[in-house]
Each structure stands twice: as C-alpha cells, then as structure tokens.
UniProtKB/TrEMBL annotation:
Full protein name: Metallophosphoesterase
Parts of the chain that traverse the membrane: none
Keyword Cell inner membrane: yes
InterPro entries: Calcineurin-like_PHP (IPR004843), LpxH-like (IPR043461), Metallo-depent_PP-like (IPR029052)
Signal peptide: none
Keywords: Cell inner membrane, Cell membrane, Manganese, Membrane, Metal-binding
Database matches in PANTHER family: UDP-2,3-DIACYLGLUCOSAMINE HYDROLASE-RELATED
Annotated organism of origin: Campylobacter peloridis
Calcineurin-like phosphoesterase domain ranges (all copies): 9-200
Length: 242
C-alpha cells in the first residue's frame, strides 16, 4: 500500500523534450531545496518519448534519470508509466515504477484510514481496440524490432514522432468530460480517483466519489501539493510561484 503523505507533489504530462525544459527546472528546484516534499508522484507522460528498448530516446532523458535517482535518496518517488514513457523499470533502482498493468495503483491518504484513492496515468479503461493497441505497443520484441528499424534509418522514426509531438496542442477542453469521467469511474471502485492523460485540470465531486484530472505540467508548469487541513485538498501552484 502506498501512503500519500501531506505535502506530496503530483505532476502529470510534463512532455519534456529538447524545446520544453520545465520539468528539468522543477527537478533542480528540488535538488536545491527551493521546493521541498517528502514524496513525488510522476503520473506519466513526463517525457515526450522515453522507451527502454528504443535507444534513440535515452540520451535526452539520461540526466533526468540520474537526477531522479539522486533525489530518491531523500524523497519517495513513484513513477506511473504513461503512453509516451513506458518499459522504464530497468532505468531505475530507487524510483518506484508502476507499469500500465499495475495501474490503477491503490493508495491511502496518510492518517486517514477510511480514505483510499486509486491513481493512474489515465490510458486504462479505454475502448477495447485502443486499449489493445496501447498494450501491444509495449511489447518488448516489437519494440526491439522498431529500434532496429529506427537505427537502420538513422533515427528518422523517433525524430518524426518528436516533431509531431512538438506540434501537438496540449490544452483542449474535452466536450462532456464530466460524463466521460463518470463513465470511467465505475471501473475504479474507490472513493477518490486521480488521473493525468486528459490534460483537463478539473475536480469533480460526485455523490460517492471524487475525481481529479491533473493539469498538464507542460502548459504552465503546474503541479499539485497535497494538503490535509481542513480536508483533503490538491493545491495547484505554478513553478514560477514556488
């Protein structure tokens, strides 16, 4: 069981790349104690592209990986894989990595024995074909073959993916998102759900369940700090305010 501590930080969808370095600045602020937390939840899609089998994605991410491992000496770091960053376990020794198969991850709010939460990147409980496609893309042997093709064409496949990601619109309000969230919640069977993936930055309080969809860090470098008084709150701040 993972216990969510007071002042824990949640970050989702940083989509870090060569042209977007906000997450690196955040990690530096942690390293320099400008930002302090006992616990860091990385809720997936922290990188635009990071896959263990795809060697061309390693060089950019390696300084981040090394710094995360260094920070994990003092901070409990939980990394939930997303649909842009997966098969990550072999990168880390101290950071706790949870694959899509291990999501949603059951947690408990510290000192609140009756209040549990399930957290996930958000790319689960999708339509069957899409769910199958996302899981298939994580296949080790398929990825090794794609790495071979990418090496053969001198990295053009990964370059094309990253170029497309750079053009991607990160903020888009999803029509009827409340209905979509409510439909998804029937799969969770808990009183509190936290997801990323959708970039909606909304908190929904249904009759028997609370749902938080985190803001994308990549947009305004927003992250969330857990507070317990007078009730459970996820206080959003921007990196420039920290």
């Amino acid at each position: 069981m993972i216990y969510i501590k007071e002042n824990a930080i949640f970050i989702a969808d940083a989509h870090e790349n060569e042209n977007r370095r906000g997450f690196w600045e955040f990690l530096q602020a942690l390293k320099n104690k400008k930002i302090q937390t006992p616990q860091l939840f990385l809720m997936g899609d922290i990188f635009d592209l990071l896959i263990y089998e795809i060697k061309a994605t390693h060089q950019f991410a390696m300084p981040y990986i090394q710094l995360l491992e260094q920070l994990a000496d003092d901070i409990e770091i939980i990394y939930l894989e997303g649909n842009h960053d997966f098969n990550l376990a072999k990168f880390f020794n101290k950071v706790k990595v949870y694959s899509i198969k291990e999501q949603p991850l059951l947690c408990q709010f510290q000192n609140l024995a009756q209040t549990k939460a399930k957290i996930a990147h958000g790319d689960i409980f999708l339509k069957p074909f899409l769910q199958f496609a996302l899981k298939s893309l994580r296949n080790h042997y398929l990825l090794c073959f794609l790495n071979f093709l990418n090496t053969l064409c001198k990295g053009k496949i990964t370059q094309k993916i990253l170029l497309n990601q750079n053009k991607k619109q990160l903020i888009r309000k999803i029509p009827n998102f409340t209905s979509l969230a409510k439909e998804r919640l029937r799969y969770y069977n808990t009183s509190f759900v936290i997801e990323g993936h959708y970039h909606q930055d909304v908190f929904l309080d249904f009759e028997d369940i609370k749902y938080l969809n985190l803001a994308t860090f990549a947009y305004k470098e927003s992250f969330f700090i857990v507070k317990y008084k007078p009730e459970i709150r996820f206080h959003k701040i921007e990196l420039k305010e920290a």
